[in-house]
From TrEMBL:
Protein name in UniProt: NADP-dependent oxidoreductase
InterPro entries, sorted: ADH-like_C, ADH_N_2, ER, GroES-like_sf, MDR_fam, NAD(P)-bd_dom_sf
Organism: Nocardioides aromaticivorans
One Pfam family hit: ADH_N_2
Keywords: Oxidoreductase
Domain Enoyl reductase (ER): 17-340
Record bears the keyword Oxidoreductase: yes
Amino acid sequence: MKSRALQVAAHPRGEVGPEHFEVVPVELPDPDQLAAGSVLVRNTWTSVDPGMRLRLRPAAPDGYFTAFDLHAPMDGILTIGEVVASRADGFAPGDVVWHSLGWREHAVVRAGESAMNGVGTLRVLDPGDAPHQHFLGPLGPMGLTAYAGLAVVDGLSGGRVLWVSAAAGAVGSLVVQIARNLGHRVVASAGSDEKVAWLRDDLGVAAFNHRSEPLGEALARLAPEGIDLYFDNVGGEHLEAALDAMAMHGRIALCGSISDYESEPTGPRNIFLATAKHLTLSGFRGSLHLDLLEEMQERVAGWIRDGRLVAPETVYDGLEQAPRAMADMLAGRTTGKTLVRLG
Ligand SMILES: NC(=O)c1ccc[n+]([C@@H]2O[C@H](COP(=O)([O-])OP(=O)(O)OC[C@H]3O[C@@H](n4cnc5c(N)ncnc54)[C@H](OP(=O)(O)O)[C@@H]3O)[C@@H](O)[C@H]2O)c1
């Protein structure tokens, strides 16, 4: 059987583009000759995540998922697929599965082998009526990250003023809706008037465009009493503005700092405000909160059924589109979860 995979051809400096990747042919094992304990999967959906940009460097940040090797399979990317053949107990042809061998059309996955802190370990899904790709979005790692960040920062309570940045993106749009459903007053920021209109008119929260209004002015306008909680997807100037706008005893969930991923880090320069205001800043990884996965899936699936949570997505068709999808996502040209449909 023949298949195809994407590999990293060169480390990007600055903005990533299709020229940094190569599509290579892959020879698959005959299904009858799979190694014991292995499963052959036809991948159907694969993920595009900002954190992958940090792994397109010679070395990824200490403690994070490892860098992708040049000219080698890109392991550690969450992916959905269908089992074609199996020599592992608990996996049968036709099963819908979740695993971590993405950016390729087929994968041979070893059952039971831990991947991505356990979040990417091969598992059978029970999608019911849910679109399968929801397990890369609201019912998967994005939901887990949003839910875990809110748990870390405020124990999933409600009634506070919460700012979330990159709020029309995969994680941000879930944070907005989960926080709103929990009873927080949400202030959301995004980088286009279209995204802001969607946040305000469809999701019903206060919203502003960070590209057309200074952050400090927008926060003073929409949260004059100060911010109790900040869910930081952006870092840099956004985190600096949050430190300025936080109320006493505020709490910040450090989810990511996408403004730094393709350029030099820019701050924050006012970190003493964390001391002065007795703030708590908590870095966290969704993948290190697997204990919350089932609880999150139950609650989020309920909200989807009740019409209280929507999961927008921007879909690119075909393996060769994945690099363009990544460039578009990093530049803010996508809304909701960015996905590649493989077939
Ligand atoms: N801690 C974890 O476990 C974990 C897990 C998943 C993701 N993350 C982090 O969560 C964040 C969001 O990830 P995602 O998958 O949901 O991506 P996403 O929000 O769907 O896409 C990225 C968005 O970031 C915004 N952006 C890009 N450059 C920016 C800049 N210089 N200033 C302000 N905004 C910028 C753009 O939105 P606008 O058009 O609105 O500017 C873009 O749409 C990232 O930092 C990611 O690394 C963390």
